[in-house]
Structure formats: structure tokens, C-alpha cells
Amino acid sequence: MADSTATNTPANATTPADAPVAEAPAAPGTPGTQDIAVPERKINRNLETEHGTTAIEDVVVSKIAGIAAREVSGVAALGGGGARMLGSIRESLGASEDVRQGVSVAVADGMANIDVSIIAEYGVAIHELAEAIRRNIMTAVERMTGLEVDRVDVSVTDVKLPQEAANEQDPETAIAPQN
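C-alpha cells predicted for Alkaline shock protein 23:
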């Protein structure tokens, strides 16, 4: 009769000697191995469900971001000089203001990356303004679209001086000769 107290030691192991042995993977940076970074694909559960997917175009996100940026106190305008010039021409022809002006968006795999170009009002703390813009855009885009906003980059292209604001409000004084 066999001893029931026998242990499974190498001497009485039940695994054949020629059975393949699983090896631990080599540590990163080990000579003779190659480190391969495999990016993890994020799936946005708000946009991919068991019932179907929702595709949100860049133009939708850029409109939401443009409106959200304009809502922040201290933002005089969006876009650089060229974009603003085209915008004023468009408005003079009777077209409505393009809320996407100064906003660039890339949407991929349920993630949005947003670039916004602004003109700040003179006197505001630009770093605080940029953070407020970032927060407002992220909140609006995530709430309205379900997309996850990865980053919002803010470029400040100009500062609107108080005299420039006064000239816009009263165009006759801007043209009138100074005596």
C-alpha cells in the first residue's frame, strides 16, 4: 500500500522530465531582448455600447470648444490676426460669426485633443485665464459629447489693449483726427 503522506518532490514528481517549462519573461532592458511598447487602446464606453457606436465629428467638438472658450471672462477674441480678418470680412458680408475660429480639434478613439488660439484682454492674469479656458472647454465637451478630453492647449496670440476696445465701441473717434 502506498504511503499517503508522500509529498510531491522532484524524486517522485508526476511531471515528465521532458515537459516544457514556462519561463518568466526577460526583464526590460535585458541584453538580447527588444522592448516593444504596445499602446493600450482606450475604449470610451460612452460612445461604444452593446447597442451601437456614436461618432462625433471634429467640427462638433470645435464648435462646442469655441463657444466654451468665449464664455470665459478675459477672452477678447479667438484666433490670430489672419483668422480674425477673415471673420470680419465674413461678418461684413452678412454671414454669421464662425464659432470655430481659432479652434483646432483632433478626435480619435473617443479622445479629443483641442488647440485654441485666443486674444486676451489687457490686465488679466494670462496663466489663470488659460487654465479657466481649459477647464471650461473640458467640462463642456465632456458633458455634451461624452468624449474624454485628453488635453487643451491654449495659445495667446495677442493682448487687446483698453484703447482698442474703446475704438471698437465708438468707430467715429477711431477715425476722427486728433487736434
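The longest strand covers residues 148-160.
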